[in-house]
Design a protein that fits this description.
Belongs to the mis12 family. 81% of the residues lie in helices and 0% in strands. The chain has 210 residues and is mostly helical. The protein folds into 3 domains: 7-107, no CATH class; 118-173; 174-209.
């Protein structure tokens, strides 16, 4: 079997010529084997009708196997010649023939330097594309995070609006004024608590001296 890749022929036919020949080879062997089984069955049937026949089925099978081996050896020789003819005259594209999809290369020839420059440009564009994809993914992650933060802020604003409405319903003004009042009250309570703690400390010290 030929080891030539025959890439141009594969592009044209859609299959490798070697694969085609291999299938022909296997198909012929299978057909030969099946034919010999049919011949053997016919011979056994004919001999079964002959009285006092001295030829036994094992002898028939032995003869069948010998004949099959003889046929396979001759087929191998014939197939080698057939393979050579098919690869050269049938499944071969001459060197001077150009496929229609490759004619653009003939109309616009490209030197090795130009081809290398195009490859470098393609590689650079691929790197830029990967960088843009990575940036897009990072932006999508950031956008999702912003959506989460926005949702939390909206919940907080809704909470403040609810408190503002409660304050107005109870005549406490808006929530900002109420919050400022609560802050001042908290500071006053802290001061009072601090004074109480200091007085309590002084009273303890006085009791210890007594």
């Amino acid at each position: 079997m030929s080891v030539d890749p025959m890439a141009y022929e594969t592009q044209f036919f859609g299959f490798t010529p070697q694969t085609c020949l291999l299938r022909i080879y296997i198909a012929f062997q299978d057909y030969l084997f099946e034919t010999m089984l049919v011949v053997e069955a016919v011979m056994l049937k004919k001999l079964d009708g002959i009285p006092d026949c001295k030829i036994s089925p094992p002898q028939i099978r032995k003869c069948t196997e010998k004949f099959l081996l003889f046929m396979k050896e001759h087929f191998e020789k014939l197939f080698s010649k057939m393979e050579e003819v098919l690869l050269q005259l049938v499944l071969n594209i001459p060197k001077n023939v150009l496929l229609p999809e490759d004619r653009v290369q003939e109309q616009h020839p490209c030197s090795k330097e130009e081809f290398q420059a195009l490859q470098d440009e393609v590689q650079q564009l691929q790197q830029q594309y990967r960088a843009e994809v990575a940036l897009e993914q990072a932006l999508r992650v950031e956008l999702e995070e912003q959506k989460i933060v926005k949702a939390e802020l909206e919940k907080t604003l809704q909470c403040f609006d609810g408190l503002d409405n409660i304050c107005r319903e109870h005549g406490l003004g808006n929530f900002k004024e109420c919050f400022a009042f609560l802050t001042q009250s908290a500071k006053k309570l802290q001061n009072v608590l601090k004074e109480v703690e200091e007085k309590s400390k002084k009273m303890k010290e006085h009791d210890q001296l007594m």
